[in-house]
Specification:
Layout lengths: L1 H24 L10 H10 L3 H18 L1 E7 L7 H10 L2 E7 L2 E6 L2 H6 L6 E6 L2 E7 H17 L5
Antiparallel strand pairs: 1-5, 2-3, 3-4, 4-5
Helix pairs in contact: 1-3, 2-3, 4-6
Length: about 160
């Protein structure tokens, strides 16, 4: 069910983006005589209009597959390296919203930040054997995992 909801969110995001681009096109001097609704209607009724719709639906259908990921950070312990995990999350604007044993849940701070991530802003940090696993939106997990790996490498020089 989560997969379908994510797909629908992304489809709506693509549609809003397309409408915004057509609206911006309506301010072009060459298209000044044509209003926004006519431009949108022409875009969808042209030969490439149905292909645009098919492309949006296909992208939305596969987005949950390639838009989310899991990443392991070796040598990190949730209890021992909690400060490093918190600092890595804070660097990218995330705050703790829940803790259940060896699982930490983080959310983006602020409404605008959450909106930019389409409210798919949750990063889950789980303790695994030999490290931790981060899961969530691909770009945020990749950034936070890299930052956490840097903190873990720098921890060698602390003692």
């Amino acid at each position: 069910m989560k997969y379908v909801i994510r797909s629908i969110k992304y489809l709506l995001f693509l549609c809003v983006l397309d409408v915004a681009l057509v609206w911006l096109m309506s301010f072009d001097d060459a298209l000044r005589t044509v209003d926004f609704v006519t431009l949108l209607r022409e875009q969808l009724s042209s030969e490439s209009g149905p292909w645009l719709i098919v492309a949006f639906v296909a992208l939305a259908a596969f987005y949950p597959r390639f838009g989310f990921m899991r990443r392991r950070v070796e040598g990190c312990n949730i209890a021992k390296d909690e400060v490093r995990i918190m600092n890595a999350m804070h660097t990218y604007g995330f705050k703790v919203v829940g803790r259940e044993g060896d699982v930490l849940r983080f959310r983006k701070e602020g409404f605008v930040g959450r909106l930019m991530l389409m409210f798919e802003d949750e990063i889950v940090v789980r303790a695994t054997e030999g490290g931790v696993e981060l899961s969530g939106l691909r770009r945020t997990v990749a950034r936070v995992a890299y930052q956490l790996e840097c903190y873990m490498q720098n921890s060698r020089y602390e003692e």
